[in-house]
Amino acid sequence: MGDFYQNGIITTLHNLSNRPIEDVEEELTRFARKRPLALILPSLFSELEGPALGHIIDEISKVPYLSEIVIGLDRANEEQFRYARSFFNKLPQHHRILWNDGPRLRALDAELQTLKLAPKEAGKGRNVWYCMGYVLASGRAESVALHDCDVVTYSREMLARLIYPVANPQFNYEFCKGFYARVADGKINGRVSRLLVTPLLRALKRVFGEIEYLQFLDSFRYPLAGEFSFRRDVLTDIRIPSDWGLEIGVLSEMQRNYANNRLCQVDIADQYDHKHQNLSLDDKNAGLSKMSIDITKSLFRKLATQGYTFNTETFRSVKATYFRIALDFVETYHNDAMMNGLQLDIHEEEMAVEMFSRNIITAGEQFLSNPMETPFIPSWSRVSSAMPEVFDRLIEAVELDHQEFMAE
């Protein structure tokens, strides 16, 4: 059971009573009559063959309040898309699959590429962006939730708690971020959030001062959570990164576009577990190593847009400050783990901290060497201005795929 303490500058909605899911769903069903609700599921085809997604779909099938489910399917050939149609066909709700590697969506993407309006690289950011475009195009929902497809501890209560803050018409929230304890199999997980993001934010505050942007990010209990919900109008002007900086990028856009009282975070699970990335100590282009570089660069870019100047000496100061703070966090988490009978390997934790500290310098070097880098995907308002028929084209491509490859 969570506590009621409010930390930082963002409202935190706790789980204080373990309210029965049936009560919450009854309310959401009532809300949905006036404010239709939808769900976005960005998925790799490999996740259809994994241990989590089948259970997730079974749980979502019981949800009574969704008007639409939008599934973004990546890395799937035609045979795999046919299989996906059958896989998701058990959903009783209205749903559509965006076959991102199919010829129709690829053709639309190619046209957007010629206009320099499409994502530059494949990945979750690109998948989410097209799903957001489809939600705008379909017009079926007023409030939307998004969560990952690899959550092995999933229950439909997670979705209900995630979407409730933007579904309740008595609330004024435009955006809600989910949080949870990354504890599973007797271990504390979430190394990038615990050992990179939080200590790096604290280090940046020591170097640059108590900037509101840094206070904002540091208010989120799990800033890298892939679960969030939003009102549909949020989608029009948001510019998201296509790399591992997606979650930080989304939060940054919310801070830029909305007052703090329109944003919140909600406790959606006592325990949460999904697939884990390799640390990749010797490969900066893979695993948590690449993730840490992309996330760090996203923070540097945002601070630069607010007028803060970086040079080699700045990055050295940030790295040294981070390293000391992060090592202190290792001790803190170790003690927390011991008190709760959990495992935490200090050696592995400190290896991660050492790699992250090196990657702060790497991210800084990349930031300085490529000042014209623009990893952000254009907003849908810009895309629709340049190609007014883009939403009709997107709907047409998805519907033609749906009709041609009918599930058996």
UniProtKB/TrEMBL annotation:
Highest taxon above the source species: Bacteria
Protein name, per record: Glucosyl-3-phosphoglycerate synthase
